[in-house]
Write a structure and sequence with these properties.
This protein is an alpha/beta fold. It is about 50% helix and about 15% strand. The chain starts with a strand and ends in a 12-residue tail after the last strand. The chain has nine helices and eight strands. It has a four-stranded mixed beta sheet with strand order 2-3-1-4. A four-stranded mixed beta sheet has the order 6-5-7-8, with helices on one face. InterPro entries: Spore_YtxC. Pfam families: YtxC. This is Sporulation protein YtxC.
Length: about 280
């Protein structure tokens, strides 16, 4: 029997709940000891060691790591608003657990995997010794350095949070500009490309010279948009009442920005639905 000591009742409960949820026959006993705290006895026969280790990692992630991250956000970086803390925490988790979402193997994910690997090895070694061990002791001994690394993870998440805030502020300013700018065209059709390709409501493709003329009298430089910017600047200058974007990538960053600005005035459609087939350059 593996004998594991937990200092906190909620951690012992989470460990037991994890094991019970595995749909495997495992003998699990739990009692409280004045000296050792919450003691969980688990039958580790028949290759159950891996499940036990998974359960201990689960307890660490949902209790200790979550607590550490929240503590760092509040006490190292001094965020007090609950919504902000929650959002930064979610960014931390995304950095560590979903590196693909950021376009590359994020360094925070690499550090996180290394920490979990160290912890997994420590739990496996403790189980292999056949003696009781304290969950607290292994966490503190093996992951002392990782707490400092989590401070860096939170710092990276806060930088991303600030970029998001700046982006939302930028989008809001452009929305406000649209509210006071008369529409030059009733509808505008766009095809995803580098840069975007623009069509009038009747299927006329705008030439570069036309776009430059249409945008000449608009102070879009106030938003960091200049005459050489050939994607968002023409759309803002024309300020269409209806905007249709055709393409194959609804997650394209430029497309999402336009959709966020125009909101209900914009729609994304597959390229196969493009209405001006004879005038299409593809």
């Amino acid at each position: 029997m593996a004998e594991i000591y937990f200092s906190y009742k909620e951690e012992a409960l989470s460990f037991c709940d994890f094991l019970f949820a595995q749909n495997e026959e495992m003998s699990v006993q739990w009692h409280y000891h004045k000296k050792w705290g919450h003691v969980v006895l688990v039958d580790e026969n028949e290759g159950k060691e891996a499940r036990i280790v998974q359960g201990l990692i689960h307890v660490y992630v949902i209790h200790r790591e979550r607590s550490w991250l929240t503590d760092i956000i509040r006490n190292c970086y001094y965020f007090t608003d609950d919504d902000e803390v929650a959002h930064i925490y979610e960014l931390c988790c995304s950095f560590m657990d979903e590196p693909d979402a950021w376009g590359e193997d994020h360094p925070s994910s690499h550090r996180h995997r290394q920490a979990l690997d160290r912890l997994t090895k420590a739990f496996e070694e403790a189980l292999g010794q056949g003696k009781g061990f304290a969950f607290d002791s292994i966490i503190k001994f093996r992951l002392q350095r990782f707490y400092d690394e989590l401070i860096e993870v939170v710092g990276e998440a806060i930088d991303e949070y600030k970029r998001e805030q700046d982006y939302q502020s930028y989008i809001q300013h452009l929305r406000e500009y649209l509210q006071v700018t008369p529409s030059k065209v009733e509808a505008l059709t766009i095809v995803q490309s580098q840069p975007f390709i623009f069509y009038s409501q009747k299927g006329h493709r705008y030439a570069l010279e036309e776009i430059e003329r249409l945008t000449a009298d608009h102070p879009l430089y106030l938003f960091g948009l200049g005459k050489d910017e050939l994607d968002l600047t023409p759309i803002m200058a024309l300020a269409p009442d209806k905007l249709s974007i055709y393409g194959n990538d609804p997650s394209d960053a430029k497309t999402l920005t336009v959709m966020n600005i125009f909101q209900e005035r914009a729609e994304f459609l597959p390229l196969t639905k493009f209405p001006f087939k004879r005038l299409s350059p593809f």
